[in-house]
Each structure stands twice: as structure tokens, then as C-alpha cells.
Amino acid sequence: MSKISTVKAFISLLAITVLAVPATSSTDSFVFGGCSQLKFTPGSPYESNVNLLLTSLVNSATFTTYSNFTVKSPTSQDTLYGLFQCRGDLSNGDCGRCVARAVSQLGTLCLDSSGGALQLEGCFVKYDNATFLGVEDKTEVLHKCGPLIGYDSDEMNRRDAMLDYLGTGDGSYKPFRVGGVGGVSSVAQCVQDLSANNNQNDEVEKTLAILIGLIAAVALLIVFLSFLRKACEKGKGGK
Ligand SMILES: *[C@@H]1O[C@H](CO)[C@@H](O)[C@H](O)[C@H]1NC(C)=O
Ligand SMILES: *[C@@H]1O[C@H](CO)[C@@H](O)[C@H](O)[C@H]1NC(C)=O
After folding, report:
1. Mutate to test the pocket of ligand 1, among 50, 79, 129, 132 (most ligand atoms within 8 A of CB)
2. Maximum Cα interatomic distance, the chain, rounded to a whole number of Å
3. What residues make up the domain containing 67?
4. How far does CA 119 lie from the centroid of its chain?
């Protein structure tokens, strides 16, 4: 056993998106968002902690594409956890802008909510007072398909090949991957929250949800899948 390969990769969420015309796809496009039902009291220490956490995420996103933060508080219910994950093909500048945009939208979408998460095309942001870092999440949060294009076996084969590619692990750690066959392209992004002290088996530690977007000529398919088993495995260290 060994090096860092024994550190298991934990992914909580992946986003995939594909671009018909890659250069023109906006990283700011809304994909999904959700808020905790519980509300905090405005003006409370909880609110200051949320603001501190989100500000830290925004600042950090200008120089890295993934980070997590914990804002500790004397009372555990006011302790906050948060992370952001930018798509692997974004520059630091674009990542920073995307996270800033997501945080700003979260503030509106999840006004006074104790927790919230938002996925834009280019980045994912989440905060909560229940720890979720390193915890896999297989929830399908979005299932969205483009216009039907009728049965086209070539197209379907290309799509399936793409999904297979995205979901296949070769043992190396690839939190971000892109693929393209014919007119179909795809992108997958795992959230890189690792858990160094986790001993659960391989099944559990890998991936989670994926958002896949495929665009073939006219077709746009966006789905969240949880089959991306080994895709984001960090090394083959697990038994
Ligand atoms: C999170 O914060 C809310 C609002 O203050 C509180 O009601 C809830 O109990 C907290 N949850 C945890 C897990 O501490
Ligand atoms: C959170 O970030 C710290 C570094 O700031 C890192 O050591 C830790 O592994 C991260 N935790 C998770 C769950 O990603």
C-alpha cells in the first residue's frame, strides 16, 4: 500500500456539461440549486459565519479550482462547512467569476437558509452546518433532456460510448474529463473533497452524481447519473 494512492478519492458530485459550440457556452448558466428548509435568524452569528464562509470561497476561487472551508463556532450548530468546485477547463479568472456569481445567486435563492447548493455550468458551490465534506452523495438532482431527435442508432451509440468513457476508471485520478465522438461531446467533473481517513470500500468511496450534458447537432441531454463508479478513483489503492 502506499503512497497517496491509498488516499481514497471522495467525490460528492460531478457536473458534466457539453458544449455544442464549446466556446460560446456560458459558464454562468444555471443548472440546479437547492436550499435547506431551516432558516437562521438574520443578524445572528450564524449569518456572519455564512458570510465569512462564502467570502472565503469567492476569494479562494481566484487561485484554485477546488477548495473547502470550515468556519468553526463554539456551538456546533453554528459551525459551517462549504466548498466550491470549478470545472477543470476553467482558468482561475473564469473560476473566480463563476464562483462569485454562484455565491451571489445563492444569497438570493437561499435567503437566510441554513444550507444551500448551486450548480452553474462552470462551478458548484455548497455550504451547510451539517458536514458533507468527503461524504458521497448519489442523489440524482436533475434530470433534463433536450428535444427528441427520434431514434438514431448512430447517435445513441455515440452517446453510450461517451457515457462509458466518462464512467470508466483506469486507476488514475481524473476528476475532470472530456470526451467527444462525432457531433457529441461531454464533460465530467467530480467534486474533489477527499477523505484521507476513510476506510470504506471502493464502492462507497467513489463517485456520485454526474451531470452529463451531451449535445449532438440538435440534441441536448443533461442527466445526473450515479454510475460513475471508478471514474474518479484516486489510484487503484483500494482493495
Ligand atoms: C443548522 O442550523 C439551523 C439554524 O440555526 C439549526 O436549526 C440546525 O439545528 C443546525 N443543524 C445542525 C446539524 O447543527
Ligand atoms: C479540506 O481542505 C483541507 C485543506 O484546507 C484539506 O486538508 C482537507 O483534506 C479538505 N477536506 C476535504 C474533505 O476535502
Report:
1. 129
2. 59
3. 30-135+176-189
4. 7
Q: Whose CA is nearest to atom 5 of ligand 1?
A: 40
Residue 145 in any domain: the answer is no
pLDDT tens digits along 89-106: 999 999 999 999 999 999
CA distance 186 to 158: 11
Domain count, the chain: 1
Residue ID of nearest Cα to ligand 2 atom 1: 68
Residue 205 resides in a domain: no
Q: What is the distance in A from the centroid of ligand 1 to the CA of 120?
A: 26
C-alpha cell at 127: 455550504
Quote the pTM value: 0.74
* Residue in the structure block whose three cell numbers are 440534441: 219
Q: What is the pLDDT of residues 170-217, one digit of tens each?
A: 677 778 888 777 777 778 888 887 543 333 333 323 333 333 333 322
- Would you say residue 3 lies in a domain? no
Identify the CATH number of the domain in which residue 46 sits. Answer: 3.30.430.20
Question: For residues 187 and 177, is the Cβ–Cβ distance under 8 A?
Answer: yes
What one-letter code names the amino acid at 230?
A: K
- Span from the CA of 129 to the centroid of ligand 1 (angstroms): 6
What is the 203 CA–ligand 1 centroid distance (Å)? 30
In a domain, 75, yes or no: yes
Amino acid code (one letter) for 29: S
